[in-house]
Amino acid sequence: MKSRYTDRLVLLLCCIMLVTRLPATAQPIQKISPSEWRSLKNDPELGYKDDKELVSPQQSNQQSRYEQAFMKFMHFMLSSTGTLIMWILVIALVIYIIYRLAVLQGGFIFSRSKKIVAQPTGVLPPEEDLEHTNWENLLKQAMGSSDTRLAVRYRYMWLLQLLQMSGQIQYRTDKTNYDYYTELNNAAYKQPFRQISRLYEYAWYGNFALSSAAYSDFLAHFDHLKNQLPK
Q1: Is the separation of the CB atoms in 177 and 107 below 8 Å?
Q2: Which of the residues in the chain have pLDDT under 50?
């Protein structure tokens, strides 16, 4: 009986000791006046902001999106598909540059290595004598022999002669057809001359026979430009 009371007494004493060791009840929050709050905010010793904290969340999100997009792009370009696309673009660019030099700039490549079908001796007059050659008579001879390709050649040289005589171009043997195109100040002459030059280079330097439709187109542009030139 005494033992039971003793155990209860010991238990009660332990509870009292445990309660006395608990922290005191939290004190109520003290309010800070506006003037004290401003003083704390302006205190330089309490300012701990760094560069990262000064960046707004919106700016940080934008930078993160840009970085992610850039990393995705670089990952794609380093993949096999990206490498293949890059090589395709490089090859396409090289082909385009060659095309510009060969076709649009007066047959730059073809003019350096002309592979022209041999003509009878004396048929082709020297180009240096552009002004004094009767290209119209040569044209009639070529048409009489049904040589369309040579007729295109003579008609084009005749056009250069007319442009030279009217002061539209300054003929020189080292110039390309694109040089003459850029010399034309009259805008009405430029487009017909460009079309004529393309067909001429295709037939003469490319050594191709023009189709009936292409030859008719060549004649139409030639007559249109010739009729616009001063008599």
Answers
A1: yes
A2: 2, 19, 22-26, 104-124, 126
Q: pTM to 2 decimals?
A: 0.47
Q: What is the per-residue pLDDT for 60?
A: 56
Q: Which of 147, 120, 123, 146 is nearest to 135 (CA)?
A: 123
